Amino acid sequence: MEDLDTLVLQTALRWHTADLPVVLVTVARTWGSSPRPPGSLMAINGRGEVVGSVSGGCIEDDLIHRIREGGVQAACATEAPAVLRYGISADEAHRFGLPCGGTVELVLERVAAHSRLEALLQACQQRQGTERVLDLRTGHVTLHPVQRDGRRDGVPRLTDTQLTTCLGPQNRLIVIGAGDLSRFLCQMALSLGFEVIVCDPREEHRANWGLAGVEISHEMPDDLILRLRPDARTAVVALTHDPKLDDLALIDALQSEAFYVGAIGSRRNSTLRRERLREHFEVPESALETLHGPAGLYIGSKTPAEIALSIMAEVVAVKNGIHRPVPAPVAVGKHLHNAALTAPSCLA
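Above: the chain's sequence. Below: its structure in token form.
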């Protein structure tokens, strides 16, 4: 499953290739509360069909109405992109379903050959962060490779003449070990728009394991990590409980750019794992401090599906810039939970 940005761009390109007029809409700026963050994308074709979103629905309805009533020209009066602002007044905010005080500024551009969507998508497939600069006077686009991962840690830059956005590669999850827990974790990751790769060199574990949309590798974990070279949009989770496999993946993953590296296991086994990695494989202490183990947030999980939910929640939290101690990792959560159970009750 593709992430939403990629889906919007692919659909817009497909519509354009089929000779349908298409408008690409980008959330350029927001003030106050806003349902969708800056950089969010939506595409509308001449039939009023839409993919993606820029609000809770009312702004989309207004844009679709404009296009259905007056065609693409109603949204973009000229070949040059248009800038629209919604929610300036309290009445408009209420009409368009924006939160109290919310304002959103959109850039609408007609998709054409000079929109460079195909080249942009190719760069994303090659896991290359790309800066896209839209000329607001002509609609022409230039693309520039960037070293950063394209993650939206800031708003797009909008001036009187340009809209500059960054698009990075799809978020990727590398899972070490094929099992029930892996299957649930992969299903959740796919639904969240991650590219998913499962690595397990044990044939007996791979024999009856398969999930549509997931790439399966029989390489040794260290070979896979070295080949893929995890970037800043990659998470690595080791789930085999076998140190001979999990440790191989962790040694190199912890020294890569991966935004999340985790492994399951008890608190005791997690401590022993850190000692092995430090003493036998000379993994730097600074790298070990980034290891999430036991992986996951504490939610009292018992079943494979619940454990997968716990792990995926922590992966998403870290991806979104939420770091410890909030939300609480498994080890901290268990300690707090156990302390609460043994504490004297004020009702006794």
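The domain at 172-335 is CATH 3.40.50.720 (Rossmann fold).
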